[in-house]
């Protein structure tokens, strides 16, 4: 049972880490503990703790429903959510639904069973208290900072995120997002719902252009939010938008400037009091609290809390606020802050009712002033000193804090024995100073610093040299400090800026001590100042007589480090008790020694005491502090690492009372100077507790585990064992973890679960309890000697044991691990060797059983030991150790030789090899290079070759392992620029890169090797536009003109195929010799543009084009347009035309086939058109007409008949092939037979296309006929039209029926007789016969081969096969084949071959011009002309008769005969 206590500081940067129940119980999360505090309007009292979380408490909330107000919930960084019973302080249930640290939790004010929590990953979890069920939602992938449940609608929850987003979710609909409230720019720190369930309480006014119009009425509830962006925003949840923005006022303190860093430290907490719907409380920049009146505007809108007196407000940012109605009816507001204070406010008067100080670190020191009664000094690990006036009646927690001049944990305190208010302090960083607690001045700091933590301060009489010249009669005091390095310094309090003296010098001089003094760990002056007791690291306690510090006695009772020493007080007690000295160490037993006889009758020589006066046994861990009762005789209180404080009756060696109220080990204790029954303790749990001896349940400490068991457990969970005094790290000295209410657990376990978490070691302004836990060593004092520091003080690597290096002298080292008796005998033997000329019989140091003694005897013995060690290393295969041993003996060459043979050379051996001479060094380097190559460390090997000036060998080494880049860099750095090896390296590397597909890198190598041709070729291998362009540019720059032209032409053709005309021209323009190809692409672009303007050939997608190639201008021929563009854009002159034509004739122009795409066909047509225009400019009419024939024939023979038709219109707008230009009219004159034949064929095809134009235009069903003929007349060749019986018959019959009765055709505007050429009709008939015979022969050969192969399985397949074979043939051919088959296969292979020979002979006799420049199908033209002449007399009788004669003579196929019956009657 406890009286008063100062709890640990509430955790920082948590949105809801404190809450008040309806009964007035405040719960505050501090570290991983929740402290319960009873609050009322006049006072507060710590009622207990909820212990169990393994990480920082991040959220806490009470159930506000009647009957369950004692139930609360908490969340933690360990991911757990726990339900507690605050009455019994017991855990009810734990939920582990979160996978990440939980950042916020709230118990619904509407549903008594609903708890909502959110974690850092954005997961929201609903916990149902009565069933234990959970449901998880993931509304937003953001970090949750806060959340709050609606007080009016059970399923609505508002969630605030780190990025400034606020989301309103419905937990009854699987976390469905109702509204996203956007407006804040930074972290959402707090959310508060309006206490009214509707939105009609506020009629807002626009403020600073940020607020919207007033919101009145509607369903929903107001929501307030506080953000790091320094604004408080009010939101309408009915409309899902903000309606009011409140900017925080800058409250400049009197006489101080505004701190520019306040924005970074801002935490904006908001709270909406239950009975004040129009008032809102918010925190401000520096801890002020502000009451906002939401019905007002301007400066009248807010009112500051605590203005009646100075210092009522918090001095730093406020994190949490919660309100409660105690029994007196006043509404109280509880706030927690970074200033480590909990304040209670009266919301009616806005005044502070009380302040509860809290502690932010371990309580290292606790001591009452011997002069100022009831004045308690506290040394805390949060870098501050607290002075608590424990006897005041008005304020039970009247404390003041002192922080100036302190930048580290306060680890020791000592009040001046006579001067009131003078308090000395020592810190973790070795600083010693003195505060005047009744003054506002900064402390005096000693100029002498300790190297390590100060653990003990004591006032005592001065000793030399400071005692010299001391004023007689007036007692003066010096300040003594003992620190972790084992030194005790004497400071002059009047001259702290002077140098402090080390008392060890005086001890040595006075007592004539030559040996090393054991490091000191504690000291205590007897109250009368006659003697001082000093505790040492080895467990010895030395008692010295002042002022010369003569050693009186040495107490050798403890075997471990001395942690605390205390003399019995000398007032109101028997004189025989004044000389009792109590001591505590790390072995858990308290010893009390009676030094009365020694002090009263000092011996001439020091006395050694080995038996105590009293032995106090019961603690199970190290003793950290103790205090004698000033009210009793021989009554002592001790505190320990076992987590308890024990009161002893020393004379009876009896345990009186045991206090177990702390969580964790205790570090300090003092007896109340006014109440004999009250003791004050402080410890690891950041608390100071006042408790009564008589009210404790237990009398003895809890039973702990034995040390042996504990050591076994420590092995299972290894920790770095450290020697320290009080406040040491967890698990040190094999101590037992303090027991909580009697349940013991190891300290190591507590640390592993994250108990030691606090802002203690962090700067106040940057501390965040959400940050990871600091190392346990940062929270504790560690008393270690210098030897212990070297061997023990190593960082804990989280259970990872660092591998111990192999010993160089394993045999001699192993001899030091023999039994104790043998080790002692070794000492005797060594003494004999050292002091006698003849060693003992059989003893040869460095050999045999005495090998280890070689290290302590002469050099010869050492060499013998080395020889034995070398043999052992060779057997174990540790040749590197052998090499080092030889190196130590000076046999450098032998060490290098051995390392070379065994492959154990290393950088160190190589670095010392030059000491053995250049030849040895060179050999060693070469051996090391071979070793490195075996280890695939080629770069390192090459570098070592350079060290012995073997450059070419190093280059070859790199080259042989394909490290070309490094080899080239080395050659360029060390050899001349014309070195042949460099070009060879570039060429080899380029070949490798080219093989791997790294063409650009290979090109760089070729360029560096002056192989520009190869560089351009390798880049062009990629064969894309960008690569070809780059290759062409590279070849041009390098002077490879022919290659540059070739690559540029390839690139331009690819660009032209992609219709990137501008890019193609740019590529060619870089080469002057490619003008003719530029002209070709110009013609192609114009051709595509003019065809794109046509209805027959729609325009294709174009990447880029020139302005001069815009569509239009169909009223002029394409040749005129080409000529104009050439003259204007390309400056083509008549003088250069001949050379251009000659160059263009060499361009490739393959024979047309049906598989060539249209884009390629147009390029080939444009090539012939370019030649035609150049021939025209040269006035070569024969070449002109032959090229024009190719222009039209290319798309026709490739299957693009519509394009061919449109080309005829573009070339000959008037339909006359003898006139190719309107702008430059001239009748063409042909002298060559081929030219005449080409002109005739070209004119015939122009008439042929015009003939079908007339058909389409005059038909009554032109659309249907056009659709029918578009495939048969335009998209099929003339030969194919005649072949297809069904197509011809259907077309002609449909044309006849669709032509209106009595309708007339207009007279044709061309001479149709050109289409009725008998010579071409005969040639075409012969060609048809040849094709029929070829088809029959093919069918016969196929049938014969299938029969021989046994592939015909049924008659069905026999009929199917010819059908498949002849499916692409015309119907008349099929009829003839079927007739032949029906006649019993009268035609044999021989007869068909004879017919084939006859027809081929006839074709050979025909003029070549007939076959080179064919006409349209004459039979087809006859049928069309006779069809036109039947309803009208559009043609002459002679022409009709000629057509009939040709049909009689050459229309022999069944389909033609059937179609011509109505014309031949």
Description:
The chain has 1465 residues and is of the alpha+beta class. Helices cover 33% and strands 21% of the residues. Strands 42-43-44-45-49 form a 5-stranded mixed beta sheet, with helices on one face. Strand 6 and strand 7 form a beta hairpin. Helix 26 runs antiparallel to helix 27.
Which structural traits does this protein have?
1465 residues; alpha+beta; five-stranded mixed beta sheet; four-stranded antiparallel beta sheet; 40 helices; 57 strands; elongated
Provide the fold topology.
Blueprint lengths: L1 E5 L11 E3 L4 E6 L2 E7 L4 E8 L5 E6 L8 E6 L4 E5 L4 E6 L6 E6 L6 E6 L4 E5 L5 E4 L6 E6 L6 E6 L4 E5 L5 E6 L6 E6 L28 E6 L3 E6 L4 E7 L14 H4 L4 E2 L7 E5 L5 E5 L8 E3 L13 E7 L7 E6 L3 E6 L4 E7 L5 E6 L6 E6 L4 E5 L8 E5 L7 E6 L6 E6 L4 E5 L7 E2 L8 E7 L17 E6 L4 E4 L9 E2 H9 L8 E6 L5 E6 L4 E5 L4 E6 L6 E6 L12 E6 L4 E5 L1 H5 L6 E3 L4 E3 L6 E6 L6 E6 L4 E5 L4 E6 L6 E6 L6 E6 L4 E5 L14 H10 L30 H6 L33 H7 L17 H6 L4 H16 L23 H18 L2 H11 L2 H11 L4 H6 L5 H17 L3 H10 L3 H10 L3 H11 L5 H16 L3 H10 L3 H9 L4 H13 L3 H17 L3 H9 L5 H18 ...
Parallel strand pairs: 45-49
Antiparallel strand pairs: 1-57, 2-3, 3-4, 4-5, 6-7, 7-8, 8-9, 10-11, 11-12, 12-13, 14-15, 15-16, 16-17, 18-19, 19-20, 20-21, 22-23, 23-24, 24-25, 26-27, 27-28, 28-29, 30-31, 31-32, 32-33, 34-35, 35-36, 36-37, 38-39, 39-40, 40-41, 42-43, 43-44, 44-45, 46-47, 47-48, 48-50, 51-52, 52-53, 53-54, ...
Helix pairs in contact: 9-10, 10-11, 11-13, 13-14, 14-15, 15-16, 16-17, 17-18, 18-19, 19-20, 20-21, 21-22, 22-23, 23-24, 23-26, 25-26, 26-27, 27-28, 27-29, 29-30, 30-32, 33-36, 38-39
